[in-house]
UniProtKB/TrEMBL annotation:
Gene Ontology MF term list: DNA-binding transcription factor activity; sequence-specific DNA binding
Keywords: DNA-binding, Nucleus
Top-level division of the source organism's lineage: Eukaryota
InterPro entries reported in the protein's UniProt record: HSF_DNA-bd, WH-like_DNA-bd_sf, WH_DNA-bd_sf
Entry's localization field: Nucleus
Protein name as it appears in the record: HSF5 protein
Gene it is expressed from: Hsf5_1
Family in the record: Belongs to the HSF family.
Main location: nucleus
GO CC field: nucleus
Organism for this UniProt entry: Rhinopomastus cyanomelas
Occurrences of domain HSF-type DNA-binding (ranges): 5-118
Amino acid sequence: PSSLNPDYFPAKLWQLVNNPKVASVQWDGRGEGLLIDEHLFLREVLEPEGADCLFKTKCFPSFICQLNLYGFHKVAKQPVATWTGAGDATGTGWFRHHFWNLHFQQHHPELLAHIKRLT
């Protein structure tokens, strides 16, 4: 929603998952959770230099900590071999991660305003 600060972590995440150019993050089948291909996410989102850098970290565990601070919960961790996205990390030991937050849903951007950073 336009009323949210674009620098707000959940707003950045919302833009990312809805960006068709980003292959490393996608909605789960129900549109109620995020699927993240760890290896591809590192290359595509966390490691690029310059203006394309969305988050302040280049470290995947730090990104996961941010998700946790905003109330996201891990649903599952599966080998990339089961990933249906565009990742190319099959067989490398990398994982896809599944996260869920009650107020982060594909067709309800108005719910983002309810996501607060935990203290």
